[in-house]
Amino acid sequence: MRRSQVQDMISAGESTTVEFKRKCTAPEKMAKELTAFANTKGGYLLIGIDDDRRIIGIPSEKTIMSEVERACIFYCDPPLNYELYIMPFDRLDIAIVYVNESNEKPHAVKDPQTPDEQKVYIRQGEESVSASKEMIRILRGMRADAKPLMISISDKERRLFDFIEKKGRATVKDFSTLVNISDRRAARLLVRLVRAGVLNIHTNEQHDYYTLVERPN
């Protein structure tokens, strides 16, 4: 990794693919950011950088290496593959942890003491946010070993497309009300349409919503 590349990331600030940490935090907090990257587009966790882009540095290379390994192996399910770089920067060392977009989605954060309690995160802008049940289904469908998807467009889907064209977006509740089906069935159908590349899913603090995929002219 080149110094100029790191400088560009620091100058640009946090984003979908870049997160700053002032210090080496608890392993579950590191796992949250790294799994969110793996579940989305991949990304870089820069440790020793303040939120205002000020370089703080890391106190111990050995500690960073140990804590990153612990976070990725014991707090991520399945475990994460990662690359770790220690780079001198303005007479201080910073750590850069890189994870690629994974083919084993979804990666979840677990506590080794309570392994049944797991949370899945995705990257949304500058934040790592909890993935909804619908998003988790979509992530599973993106795995390399996922079964091929076959869809058919019925009157329900056509009415949904008309609704989105008029309103700009639709939620699970919008769809279920529109065609008089259960929320659960509506969610399953929407997930299939996202997996088929017909719809986009968007996450905000309240709920997921769906828009039509724009087609090239």
Give a structural overview:
Helices cover 37% and strands 25% of the residues. It contains seven helices and ten strands. It has a four-stranded mixed beta sheet, sandwiched between helices. The longest helix has 14 residues. It is elongated, with a radius of gyration of 20 Å.
Low-pLDDT runs of 5+ residues are none
Major β-sheet annotation: 4 strands, mixed
CATH topology-level name of the largest domain? Methyltransferase, Cobalt-precorrin-4 Transmethylase, Domain 2
CATH architecture of the largest domain: 2-Layer Sandwich
Tell me the quaternary state: single chain
Helix-strand string: HEHEHEEEEEEHHHHEE
Compute the separation of the termini in Å: 39 Å
Arithmetic mean of pLDDT: 91
Q: How large is the count of helical segments?
A: 7
CATH hierarchy class name of the largest domain: Alpha Beta
- Range of strand content: 25-35%
Care to count the β-strands?
Answer: 10
Helix content: 25-40%
Any idea what the CATH superfamily of the largest domain is called? Schlafen, AAA domain
* Major beta sheet, strand line-up: 1-2-5-4
Q: What is the total domain count? A: 2
Gyration radius (Cα, Å) is 20 Å
Offer a few descriptive terms.
single chain, 217 residues, alpha+beta, Methyltransferase, Cobalt-precorrin-4 Transmethylase, Domain 2, Arc Repressor Mutant, subunit A, four-stranded antiparallel sheet, 37% helix
